[in-house]
Amino acid sequence: MLEKLEKLFNEFTSALEKLSKEAEILNLKSEYLGKKGAISQILAGLRDCTPEEKKQLGPAANEVKNKIQELINSKLQKLEIDAINEKLASEREDLSLTDSVMASNNHHGGIHPVTLIQTEIEDIFLSMGFDILDGPHIEDEFHNFEALNIPADHPARDMQDTFWFHDPHAETDEKKFLLRTHTSTIQVRGMTSRKPPFRFIAPGKVFRCERTDASHEMVFHQLEGMMVGKDISVANLIYFMKSLLSEIFKKEVEVRLRPGFFPFVEPGFELDIKCLICSGKGCSVCKQVGWVELLPCGMVHPNVLKAGGIDPDEFNGFAFGLGLDRLVMMRYHIDDIRHLHGADLRFSEQFKTF
Ligand code: PHE
């Protein structure tokens, strides 16, 4: 019997050695250790043995059973580790691959054209000595309206359809907070945090509750600019605006100045450029007039300087609010502003810069 055990064990080890699949190993296990398996049968046969034989054979059979169990466990464990290692090796990322090799397999991001143009303009203004400021999207009435010479009930509040926040804890239904309708809010923040002379720009998103069409979006981008000092004139304003536009378009662009009304500037202007999409012939972007409103601007109203803590008898200045989306549209010949936020990869991939 002992010899039979030894033979069985040897047969088992050589069978196990040849196997490499989990299912086959489990089959082998049940051939030997299963209810009707070879070892189990030997153990069951002990019943008919003499006590002497039982003493010898019992522990020996149990020992073989435990060894088989151990060998099976370690083989299964090894299989699992091999599988993990194989996966690790095959999924390894080669970080030394060059961009062009990666690009053939993967989509990767690019810079949004509004961001592109914004950084370019920031560089132009930085080189002309301007600071770059930022401000919150959620604003109060003071910064969006009052400090900009637009008191409550002033009809100019209706010029910009505003998204108001309703405060659920307020006792009255007075609405004090809003999504900023223009970046002019940062004029106020800029004035109160510095002493003249100063010059800064402030790019950012603005929000208006408007119907969308080819040239209007509810969320769009402006770049505010302000320069305050002594004896600043309309000629200074025009100089800065023209230098900016010719840098951006890399050529002289045709501009025209019209009177424009904004309560926070006096005099106020609309600076238009000749539509670069239709060269002035008329299209959906310029609403068939051939000119595009790009740069509302003007000389800062004395009331605004006062609200910013600046003495209007001593200092004056200019301000402008450049529409970044329209600028992008002019530069890249995009005929519908809605493409800019459309999240269509076919559109954005055209601006990949790396
Ligand atoms: N804030 C104005 C608007 O959004 C633009 C503007 C800015 C006009 C600065 C004049 C001076 O319509």
Describe this structure in words.
Helices cover 41% and strands 18% of the residues. A seven-stranded mixed sheet has the order 1-5-6-10-9-8-7, with helices on both faces. It contains twelve helices and ten strands. The protein has helices spanning 2-18, 22-33, 38-45, 51-90, 99-105, 113-127, 141-144, 185-192, 234-249, 302-307, 324-332, 345-348; strands spanning 131-132, 138-140, 164-165, 177-179, 198-207, 219-229, 255-259, 265-274, 291-300, 316-323. It has 354 residues and is an alpha+beta fold. Helix 3 (38-45) packs antiparallel against helix 4 (51-90). Strand 7 and strand 8 form a beta hairpin. The longest helix has 40 residues, at 51-90. The protein folds into two domains: 2-90, no CATH class; 113-351, Bira Bifunctional Protein, Domain 2 (BirA Bifunctional Protein, domain 2, 2-Layer Sandwich), CATH 3.30.930.10. The chain binds phenylalanine. Phenylalanine binds next to strand 8, strand 9 and strand 10.
